[in-house]
Every structure is written in C-alpha cells, then in structure tokens.
C-alpha cells in the first residue's frame, strides 16, 4: 500500500525472466527437524532479494478460487455500482479507486481497486497522531453482498500467516520470538486490496505503468496473483526480475517497517507492475500485514554475526522512512490518492509537505 517515490532501476534496465525467486514452505516451520533450516532459508531469501514465494500457508485452493471469482465479479459490475463506493467519499482512504486515480511517483497507475481495512469505527482526530484518520468504516459494494464475508475470512486467515512469519523472522534474527507481537496485539492496521489491471488494448494511454516503482510501507505483504498473469517485477541489483505467479503460493515481500527494525538487514524491495499485454487483464489481491497505527517499530539489537549485513536504512529524501507505522502509512496515502487528500485533508497535506521539505524524520 505504500507508494513511495523511490530510486528504481533505470528506464532502460533489463527485465530478466531467467532468474527465479526462492520458494519457501511455511509448513516446515512446524516440523522440529526442519524449523531451523526453514529460518535460515527465510533469512537468506529476505536479505538477498526481499521477495520470495510462500507455500504451506494453510490457505486452500477452494478459498482462493472463491475470492478470485468474487473479485472478477466485482470488477465486471457496471461502473455506477463501483463508483457508488468511490474512495474519494471516504476520509479514511477506503473504497473503490477508478483507473488512473492513484498515482505513484506522480504518474497515474493504470489499475482499479478496492481498499479494505479491518471494520472499525473512525478514531477521534488528533494533532499528535494525525494518522488516526486512516481508521474508519469500509465501503462495501451493495451490488455484491457475498464479497464481504469472503474477504473477512481471508483477512482473518492471512493475519495468522503474517504473525507466524514475523515470529519466524524474529527467531531467525536472534530475537525473542515474540518481539514484534506487541505492535500487532491491538487493532493492527492491516489492509487488503482487490485489484484489476486492464490490458493495454483497452486503455486510452500508451503508459506501461500498472503501478509504478514503490516500496510497501508496512512489515510484510502477502500477495495472491492467479497463475498465468505476469506483470510484477522486482528490483534485483538494478535489473527487473519477473515475479511470475506460482500455483498455490503467495508472493511475499518486505515492507519499510522491517527494513527500519533490522537497520537495513532486511530490505524493502522496490517493485512495480506493468500494464498487461493485449487481451490479458490481470487481477491481484495484496494483503498488507501492518501493525497498530501508533506502534513504534522495535529497533532490534542484532547478533554480532548479522550486524555486518545491517548496512542502514535507505533514507531517500523523496521517501523518508518513519519509525511510527501510522506516520509511514499516512505519508504514502496522502501522496498516492490525491483526490481523497485534496477533498478531506488539504490542511494536513500542506503541513506534511513542509515537513518533508525540511527532511525531518522521526524515525
Ligand atoms: O498487483 C501486484 O502484483 C502488486 C501490487 C503492489 O505492489 C501493491 O499494491 O503494493
Ligand atoms: Fe507493492
């Protein structure tokens, strides 16, 4: 969900499909004989590329197929049913975004989507904690009532997978297994999107930007994409690596909070999605496992043998990383959804821009 304006591979960077992301099987963590090896593999994969495939999550093919079916059904609705829940109506950045209405690095993203968080009432507005505005009710499509229970079940399942993975990471990093738990214990600000990228021949643009190069702003992302729908590319040493979807697997990537927590040992990797080829619209379902809005990231005291790899957080002046999750998320939301920001949060946006210009980071 973070749409950070970041340095990315050069415009003419090579796209490689000959290298594959590592595949990790989470069920190995349940087997006392294999758990330590799993954690070593996890650390290796997340330090080297910052992206990997995850199998063995317990999410079934039937659950996935049902969510994919409903996602397709939502996007097939008449535009009027979709814009009835447009995000611009929500000060909490929830609801439907039309094609081209989200921006990354100031350019439109050629995708449509719904943003859905945990269903909670709006928080009182606070000057000290302006990110409270990110909590509030969702907008559900009246024309597709079956969507809500299926999404809520998906969120509940992936929340468990996210926590499990964070605990394995904690242990792999020589920490107490539960070091990250407090940040997620009350009201984690998770976010789910259902997304559709129309194919190039249906767009009135020659842009290839499905979503522009960015990092995700939370701890980790669990992304489902149906097999046969390429387009996601991952920055690997200045080239773009194709993250081709794999049957039965999630694509997992590291967000900015894990980069901050590990002083850069784990890197939030830049990625983008290309507009699909003619005739091949693509859908995707990213789930962002984010902590409580007011949680401060615990900065880990890493064991000596890992410290050498913890080379510092990337503080790009166009994309500062903040140590309070809500602040880091608000930065991304203000920037990516300009229509919502201008309608509901113009004053905050002006303050924010001044602050960003001064390069002031609380991280
Ligand atoms: O659609 C995808 O494959 C990835 C989307 C993404 O990176 C995001 O929404 O943050
Ligand atoms: Fe992303």
Automatic annotation (TrEMBL):
SUPFAM superfamilies named in the record: Clavaminate synthase-like
Pathway involvement of the protein, from the record: Antibiotic biosynthesis
One Pfam family from the record: 2OG-FeII_Oxy
PROSITE patterns for the chain: FE2OG_OXY
Keyword line: Antibiotic biosynthesis, Iron, Metal-binding, Oxidoreductase
InterPro entries: DIOX_N (IPR026992), IPNS-like_FE2OG_OXY (IPR044861), IPNS-like_sf (IPR027443), Iron_ascorbate_oxido_reductase (IPR050231), Oxoglu/Fe-dep_dioxygenase_dom (IPR005123)
Domain Fe2OG dioxygenase: start-end pairs: 187-291
Keyword GTP-binding: no
Family: Belongs to the iron/ascorbate-dependent oxidoreductase family.
Protein name: 2-oxoglutarate and iron-dependent oxygenase domain-containing protein
């Amino acid at each position: 969900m973070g749409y950070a304006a970041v340095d990315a591979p050069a415009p003419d960077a090579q796209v490689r499909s000959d290298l594959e992301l590592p595949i990790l099987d989470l069920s190995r963590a349940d087997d006392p004989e294999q758990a330590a090896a799993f954690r070593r593999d996890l650390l290796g994969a997340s330090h080297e590329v910052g992206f990997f495939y995850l199998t063995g999550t317990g999410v079934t093919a039937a659950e996935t197929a049902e969510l994919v079916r409903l996602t397709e059904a939502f996007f097939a609705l008449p535009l009027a049913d979709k814009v009835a829940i447009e995000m611009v109506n929500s000060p909490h950045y929830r609801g439907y975004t039309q094609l081209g209405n989200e921006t990354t690095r100031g350019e439109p993203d050629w995708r449509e989507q719904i943003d859905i968080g945990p269903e909670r009432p709006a928080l009182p507005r606070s000057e000290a904690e302006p990110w409270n505005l990110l909590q509030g009710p969702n907008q559900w499509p009246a024309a597709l009532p079956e969507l809500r229970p299926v999404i809520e079940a998906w969120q509940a399942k992936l929340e468990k997978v996210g926590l499990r993975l964070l605990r394995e990471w904690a242990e792999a990093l020589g920490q107490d297994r539960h070091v990250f738990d407090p940040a997620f214990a009350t009201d984690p600000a998770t976010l789910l999107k259902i997304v559709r990228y129309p194919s190039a021949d249906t767009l009135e643009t020659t842009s290839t930007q499905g979503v522009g190069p960015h990092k995700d702003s939370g701890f980790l992302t669990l992304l489902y994409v149906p097999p046969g729908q390429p387009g996601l590319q991952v920055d690997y040493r200045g080239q773009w690596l194709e993250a081709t979807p794999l049957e039965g697997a999630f694509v997992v990537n590291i967000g900015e909070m894990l980069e901050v927590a590990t002083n850069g040992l784990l890197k939030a990797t830049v990625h983008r999605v290309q507009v699909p080829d003619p005739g091949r619209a693509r859908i995707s379902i990213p789930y962002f496992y984010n902590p409580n809005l007011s949680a401060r990231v615990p900065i880990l005291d890493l064991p000596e043998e890992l410290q050498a790899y913890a080379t510092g957080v990337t503080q790009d002046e166009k994309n500062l990383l903040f140590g309070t999750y809500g602040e880091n998320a608000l930065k991304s939301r203000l920037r990516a959804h300009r229509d919502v920001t201008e309608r509901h949060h113009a004053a905050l946006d002006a303050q924010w821009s001044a602050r960003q210009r001064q390069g002031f980071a609380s991280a």
